[in-house]
């Protein structure tokens, strides 16, 4: 009797185990791993980059404050240029302004009695010099006409006479201005001289302000073509700063793949130099016009916040299926 009972219990247990095994097997199914499909490759570029160049005449670089890879903020000084020559030009131009202003002040002001007296005394001296010059001229001319003097002496006394007449004429005009006051034409000319000198100062100061080259954007230095002591040529690219917060990749997608993508779609970015890594991106532009190879230009915006991706890298774009 006991043997029959044991066989019955064993059979029930065995059947229950098979039932459980069958149920577990029916409920457990292995899910296939997602498959990556890459549709194009392209170079990582930036929407926001700047090439920094010198705006002044070629000059020596006194300091470079960055290296490739340096992080900079908008307004940071990047390259310092030697501005010794410009400093001197500013000082000289400012001295010319002071002289021009003094001249204008003199023209606009009424003459002092002592200035008139000095000019009158000078005219009296001019008259005596002219009388002596005329006397010498007449004496040499008589001798020259008779053949007793040389042509060289004749030309010399004639030049002296002309100079004496011109000096007297000029001093008489100055005396007239002192007594009658400067004309509007004289005042306008002096004002123009002041303005011209001031414009020159502003020009040199503007150039001087370009002696320190600053970055207008925040970002990372990707190129540095200049070093301390070298000559920075006007307009030549010295440093490039790239904002890696606004990266994108353009590529060509075959027409038969357009149905697989849409604007706003998340994609995978696989850089060629880091094939084991994946970064996030998003399709931001799909050009509806195909090119000559029946392909459409697609732009992917990089959504990576790690700042590992850099401009110039080649990357594949794809998605999981």
UniProtKB/TrEMBL annotation:
InterPro entries: Beta-barrel_RND_2 (IPR058792), HH_YbhG-like (IPR059052), UPF0194_transport (IPR050465)
Superkingdom classification of source: Bacteria
Keyword hit for Signal: yes
Protein name, per record: Secretion protein HlyD family protein
Cell compartment(s), UniProt: Cell envelope
Pfam families named in the record: Beta-barrel_RND_2, HH_YBHG
Signal peptide: 1-22
